[in-house]
Automatic annotation (TrEMBL):
Modified residues (N6-(pyridoxal phosphate)lysine): 289
Pfam families: Pyridoxal_deC
Protein name: Aminotransferase class V-fold PLP-dependent enzyme
Lineage: Bacteria, Pseudomonadati, Pseudomonadota, Alphaproteobacteria, Rhodobacterales
SUPFAM superfamilies listed in its UniProt record: PLP-dependent transferases (SSF53383)
Transmembrane spans: none
Length: 452
């Protein structure tokens, strides 16, 4: 008995269902998201899309309506100019439109054989980033899903470089970083069964290099230093030159976590903040943060990519037919199958040109400066820190922590502003991080007036 043919017959035999998706995609790219959208409870979602997976399927247009009318409105619109919490997103229209095409192209970009054209273009983008850091053409890497995976892949390569160099294995491997380092460093250390040694930071959140020196003098097993290039909570950029000196002195790998901040290398006026990065061993920067590209994408770059390959290259008999001498992106991080997630940034850079990127970064920096100035001049508000890159910390002079939460939630629900509290030096404060050149500083200040 033979099996019946697969019944994938409702789509796209009805051309309207494909057109509906394409038309929605087009409108969404041109109009952007609704800032009032947000999370729903599982019960509310179940009431509308529970039971949608059935034995016989449903009409494709009705299925797509579940996405457009229920799923999308139940998500937070980070790429709206009023989204100033966490590190939001601001993908260019070119990058979004291109990403839809990239999905349709279904390129396997894990190895050269599967995705040479796409990989070559991704590598051009990585070379541009490496050039901004002052690295040579020998540098290279890969785009991974996000900063967490980038940090993990870089730090695994760092430890393997230590082991491959024949250095003695300590009782415990350790990673040194600032107390302001992103939570992913702690998560990565847990995966690696390593320990994080945190060094105190100054009043602006920058690591204190003399303290790092002291810690290194009496701590064994440190194989890498992680520097902040735009600490998430406060925007601080560590003194990369001082950390490079320490790394050289102690024979350590220097990894720069610039998931958010290193995009500012594209603005010549901000580039000097990262002086010293030319001496690092690896860095990451997320195009989906401040580089105007869609989720999900993190550029991981090694100064010497062979060290990445020595750590990550996978071997398997079914892979033996692949050309090992070719540039296989799967060799440079913890993954095998991958989409060419660096291409939306490539397409956007190719379309608008690198000067537009520098200008967009400069504009967001100016917007953050205008918001900070406005906060400083508002009677009821106290500017605590910033802008450091585009992060601002501030608080209303007379408002309880509970009222602050209520205010933030009311703004979020109405779609006026996504501006959430954080903790700074033990106190609840408000935090703004601007990554969208279309954020209107006057509008933001108008909303903040309701706090004063
Ligand atoms: C400095 C920094 N490093 C790492 C990460 C983790 O990146 P991802 O969320 O892409 O995994 C973030 C995320 O905000 C970050 O700001």
């Amino acid at each position: 008995m033979t099996n019946p043919p697969p019944r994938f017959d409702g789509f796209p035999s009805d051309p309207d269902s494909l057109n509906r998706i394409l038309e929605w995609t087009r409108t969404r790219i041109l109009q952007g998201p609704d800032p009032r959208n947000g999370a729903q409870t599982p019960a509310a979602l179940d009431a509308r899309i529970g039971g949608s997976i059935t034995a016989n399927g449903m009409d494709p247009q009705a299925a797509f309506a579940l996405f457009s009318d229920v799923i999308v409105p139940s998500t937070r619109p980070f790429n709206h100019p009023t989204s100033l919490a966490f590190v939001a997103a601001a993908p260019t229209p070119a990058s979004l439109a291109f990403d839809a095409a990239l999905g349709a192209a279904e390129i396997f970009a894990g190895n050269w054989d599967g995705g040479s054209g796409a990989i070559h273009a991704e590598n051009q983008t990585l070379a541009w980033l490496a050039g901004l850091a002052g690295w040579s053409k020998d540098a290279g890497g890969v785009f991974v899903s996000g900063g967490t995976m980038g940090n993990l892949s870089a730090l695994h390569a760092a430890r393997m470089a230590w082991v491959n160099a024949g250095k003695p294995r300590p009782d415990r491997f350790r990673i040194l970083c600032s107390e302001q380092a992103h939570s992913s460093i702690e998560a990565v250390a847990q995966v690696m069964d390593a320990e994080v040694v945190k060094v105190s930071s100054d009043e602006t959140g920058r690591i204190i290099p003399t303290k790092a020196q002291e810690v290194l003098a009496h701590t064994s097993g440190v194989f890498a230093i992680v520097a902040n290039a735009g600490a998430t909570n406060c925007g601080a950029v560590d003194d990369l030159r001082a950390l490079a000196d320490l790394a050289t002195q102690h024979g350590l790998w220097l990894h720069v976590d610039g998931a958010y901040g290193l995009a500012a290398m594209a603005d010549p006026a901000l580039r000097q903040q990262f002086d010293g990065i030319e001496r690092a061993d690896s860095f990451i920067v997320d195009p989906h943060k401040w580089f105007f590209a869609p989720y999900d994408s993190c550029a991981l770059v090694y100064r010497d990519p062979i060290k990445g390959a020595q750590a990550h290259g996978q071997k398997g008999v079914y892979l033996d037919t692949l050309d090992q001498a070719a540039w296989n992106p799967s060799d440079y991080a913890l993954h095998l199958t991958r989409r060419a997630r660096g291409l939306p940034l490539w397409f956007s850079l190719v379309t608008y040109g690198t000067l537009a990127y520098g200008a967009a970064i400069a504009k967001t920096y100016e917007i953050a400066q205008q918001i900070a100035d406005g906060i400083e001049n508002m009677d009821g508000l106290e500017l605590i820190l910033g802008p450091q890159l585009t992060v601002i910390l501030f608080r209303p002079r007379a408002m309880s922590a509970a009222d602050l939460d209520d205010w933030a939630e009311a703004q979020r629900r109405s779609g006026a502003l996504l501006c959430l509290p954080t903790t700074w030096r033990g106190e609840k404060v408000l935090r703004i991080c601007v990554v969208n050149p279309e954020t209107d500083p006057d509008y933001v200040l108008e909303v903040l007036e309701t706090l004063a």
